[in-house]
């Protein structure tokens, strides 16, 4: 492995290193714990505190005010974080994907979750085949792709993204949530004015910059409270556990190179 550099990091629940290798299309960020390469998707425990389901570990893919679209790879061994790619218009040639607008939040994933792409999740629509997404609404502005921390679940909304179900889980860094006494999204919203409109509009129109149709915010644009969001995450974790063991999902395990 040709390492460009190591970054030493620490979260509330684990110490780890991030290594960077390659550049451009081959650039990737790898996770290391105890000098062993680990998977961002499989090896970070979803729940850092036993039986406390509103506190989860989250990983950052796209820090706020960044345009490069990074994501956990489901098909590369150890699931490094890589930059997404897309086809150029009127060509089969690929290019790295960038967003057209900055986001006012940190964006990332919940380890050990999966939105099942093989079953009906709502009104005949299936999941988007990815780990659950998070929007970290904390004031943290110095995060990097690959950073991991504990977060409190405060809400959720559901996007029908190009005919796929794609839940977005709203979280705050646990330290900030405790300091501000935020337990529900409504608590956060009271302190942040027009934030709901900004968030929902971003996900409604985000694909139109690529010439695709608008997304739909399901359930009448509702942003659910923490209880519903916790249930969505627990279900996403159960779908992930099924992915690991259900004989009907053997093809998916092969696709994702899951051997356990």
UniProtKB/TrEMBL annotation:
GO biological process: phosphate-containing compound metabolic process
Domain of life: Eukaryota
Cofactors demanded by this protein: Mg(2+)
A Pfam family: Pyrophosphatase
Ranges that cross the membrane: none
Entry annotated with the keyword NAD: no
E.C. number: 3.6.1.1
A Gene Ontology cellular-component term: cytoplasm
Example GO molecular function: inorganic diphosphate phosphatase activity
Keywords: Hydrolase, Magnesium, Metal-binding
EC class name: hydrolase
Family statement drawn from the similarity comment of this UniProt entry: Belongs to the PPase family.
Stated name of the protein: inorganic diphosphatase
Originating species: Paramecium tetraurelia
């Amino acid at each position: 492995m040709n390492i460009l550099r190591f970054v030493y990091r620490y979260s509330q629940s684990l110490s780890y290193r991030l290594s960077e290798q390659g550049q451009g299309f081959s650039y990737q960020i790898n996770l290391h714990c105890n000098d062993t390469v680990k998977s961002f998707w499989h090896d970070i425990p979803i729940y850092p505190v036993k039986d406390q389901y509103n506190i989860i570990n989250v990983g950052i893919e796209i820090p706020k005010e960044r345009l490069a679209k990074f994501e956990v790879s489901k098909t590369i061994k150890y699931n490094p974080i890589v930059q997404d790619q897309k086809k150029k218009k009127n060509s089969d040639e690929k290019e790295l994907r960038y967003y057209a607008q900055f986001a006012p939040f940190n964006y990332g994933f919940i380890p050990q979750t999966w939105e099942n792409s093989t079953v009906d999740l709502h009104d005949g629509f299936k999941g988007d085949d990815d780990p659950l997404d998070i929007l970290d609404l904390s004031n943290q502005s110095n995060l990097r792709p690959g950073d991991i921390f504990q977060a409190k679940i405060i809400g959720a909304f559901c996007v029908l993204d190009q005919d796929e179900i794609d839940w977005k889980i709203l979280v705050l860094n646990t330290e900030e949530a405790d300091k501000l006494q935020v337990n529900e999204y409504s608590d956060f919203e009271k302190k942040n004015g027009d934030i709901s409109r900004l968030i929902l509009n971003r996900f409604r129109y985000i694909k139109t910059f690529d010439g695709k149709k608008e997304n739909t915010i399901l359930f009448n644009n509702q942003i659910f409270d923490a209880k519903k969001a916790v249930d969505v995450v627990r279900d996403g974790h159960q779908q992930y556990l099924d992915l690991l063991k259900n004989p009907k999902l053997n093809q998916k395990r092969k696709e994702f190179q899951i051997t356990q």
